[in-house]
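Structure tokens please, single chain.
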Amino acid sequence: MVIVFSVFGLFYNGFNKKATPYLLYICLMIPSIYVSLYLLEVDQNIRKAIAFNLSGPVTLGVSALFCFGLKVSRKQLESIVNFILFPLVSTLVYVFMYNPDVSAVSTGTGVKLCGFWRIWT
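Here you go.
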């Protein structure tokens, strides 16, 4: 979804000519498809493996193209940090308030810890 919204933003706002190194970064990932075809094993789904391995770098490159030259004010930055922190804080409060007793749920891991050594039973 990040790629889709970033591409829509690039069409809407335009492309900055100074961001060509990021476009070069995206173009230099094309040979990695051929390397993946050579190195992946036959029993794997090659299309899914290539999409999985390249989705992160492509997202990084497209979002860098979109965000290049954007100005963020202090108030916008505070709003972004709030949008990041509030779900984390609410999840933390939920986990502390509604977390069951671990001893009632855990049946054992099969590992006894003796100092720094693990003894498998």
